Amino acid sequence: MPDRISSQTLRSTLTIIMGGGRGTRLFPLTHKRSKPAVPLGGKYRLVDIPISNCINSGLRQIYVLTQFNTESLHRHISDTYKFDPFSRDFVHILAAQQTPGHDEWYQGTADAVRQNLSYFLEKPYQYFLILSGDQLYRMDYRTMLRQHQDTGADVTIATTPVEREAARSFGIMQTNDEGRITRFCEKPGSNDGLLDELRIPPAVLKKSGIPVDAERFEASMGIYLFNRAAMEKCLANDLRDFGGDIIPKSIETDNVFSFVFQDYWEDIGTIGAFFEANLGLTKMVPSFNFFDPVNTIYSR
Q: Cα 76 from chain centroid?
């Protein structure tokens, strides 16, 4: 499936990893390091997951945006990810900085990308893949790129089916039968009436290979794929966050599609999630295999 993606498309895709959050819900693990620098599974760091997924997907032009407690993260990235100096591949760090046009910290995920947009637009990239630096999963992004092209989407958002209790704390999408997102609700919480409206329809469940009698909701994974024009348009304002601001507005004006991901995925945003993810690695068949011989997770 992913082999239909041309090498030109891969070279025309820039990856942007968000690594600047305070990580207050992971304290004290984030007392002296940022969330993406938190160790997992022994020698790995959380940031190794999205970077390794990119490398395994043939996406090797990567920026990591950083802001809080960055020393450990900067050192790990610079010591670990070194490509052939004669290639165009790179993993570069863009730390929050004062410039003639900006003298503030990043005010959110969208603001972080906006403040660095001049760097991203220097080269003729046609696609911008925005990833979180604190999630545990294995994805071939070429499949998402392929769907993005096939549907003619301006924006594609990776989603994962979740049960009702989990849906309360995620951004939930509602899609039509073609997979186009028609509605977005940020963290429905205890509003069960709203959740009833956002359930995945049986026809869509069947199409996705999920039992039609299962109650599922499409939760945003915080993974976004933008066309160049859509990226420039979406950031031509002062909106601060992708999930809470940019995406709801884009759904109203652009072709925004859902890419449904059904494999293991865990958002390592709390101590509880961190604990459960590590326990999952100790199972006879681990929830996540760090030692996949084909899709390697790189570290040092």
A: 20
DSSP label at residue 186: E
3-state secondary structure of 44: strand
SS3 state at 218: strand
CA nearest 246: which of 234, 258, 231, 259? 234
Render pLDDT for 140-172 as a digit per residue (tens, 0 to 9): 999 999 999 999 999 999 999 999 999 998 899
Q: Which structural domains are found in the chain, ordered by start?
A: 2-280 (3.90.550.10)
Report strand pairing: 181-186 vs 44-45: unpaired
- Note the pLDDT tens digit of each residue in 94-143: 988 877 777 788 788 999 999 899 899 999 999 999 999 999 999 999 99
Q: Which two tokens stand for residue 61?
A: 């032009």
Give which of 258, 243, 298, 225 is closest to 12, Cα–Cα. Answer: 225
What is d(CA 139, CA 288) in angstroms, rounded to the nearest whole number? 12
Overall pTM surpassing 0.90 (yes/no): yes
